[in-house]
Amino acid sequence: MEVVSKDSHSKREIVIFGVLVGISLILIFMGDLRQVKAARAVSMVVFYPFEKSIAHWKGLSNLSNENAMLRQQVTELSIENQQLRQFEYENKNLRKLVDFKKRKGLELVPAEVIGRDPNRLTESFVIDRGKDAQLRPGMPVVTAEGLVGKISEVVEGTSLVQTIFDRDFRVSCLEMKSRVIGILRWKGGSNCSLENVPVQAQVSVGDTIVSSGLGGIFPKGLLVGVIVSMKPDNTGLFHDIEIAPAADLSSMEEIFVVKSVRLEEMRRTQQRPMGGE
């Protein structure tokens, strides 16, 4: 029996491969022969579906890449739009604050809210200015909308703000038309109370309440809020007045600290437990 070695098989395959390559080259260089043209035509018919599928796949691949690029561009434009909206919002707020500063003629220090206690969102918050900006406890805190509170603690780089929604906060206020004076305090809920206003005082719902300037802490004329409800209290001697604060303490991001206040009056007023500031 004849035994065929693996080497002979390998040599045979190489020879066959070489012959096929040679035939292919001949077909390429003899493109004007009818047989070659016929063979080309047959091969085009046979391989056309495969070529079409490959072309379709390439088209889908290109389309997928294009879609990915478009999605990236849409995302980038969306982020840019969001940033522009934020810049516009901040710019609008800054213009309002600058206008407020010009109208009031106060020495103001701008600051940003950088921290809040989750359990006391509206009672206090931390700002990014402190001893480095020469801030002191007792200095008023405002926005362009109105009174926010005052500085209660100061360290290097930050300060704690006590707002009008702190139960220990007091400020002397007056109603703009009648000029009657009362003490603003918070008893809970979303509004404040204006106390010590006699029942005979000519005040009504919708009237504007501003700081009176008495006590030396808060400059006169800072907008505090608007009367939203009123009725005689239990004694029948005073009004029970509810004030909606002008400043939205839950969402503010930028504030101003009022520096143009006499420190001697600050310290003296802080020692008064019952009066407004």
UniProtKB/TrEMBL annotation:
Transmembrane intervals: 14-33
UniProt keyword annotations, A-Z: Cell shape, Coiled coil, Membrane, Transmembrane, Transmembrane helix
BP terms from Gene Ontology: regulation of cell shape
Any one Gene Ontology cellular component term annotated for this protein: plasma membrane
Domain of life: Bacteria
Endoplasmic reticulum in keyword set: no
Residue ranges the record marks as coiled coil: 60-104
Domain Rod shape-determining protein MreC beta-barrel core: 113-259
Family annotation (InterPro entries): Cell/Rod_1, Cell/Rod_MreC_2, MreC, MreC_beta-barrel_core
One Pfam family recorded for the sequence: MreC
Family recorded in the similarity comment: Belongs to the MreC family.
Protein name according to UniProt: Cell shape-determining protein MreC
Gene transcribed to yield this protein: mreC
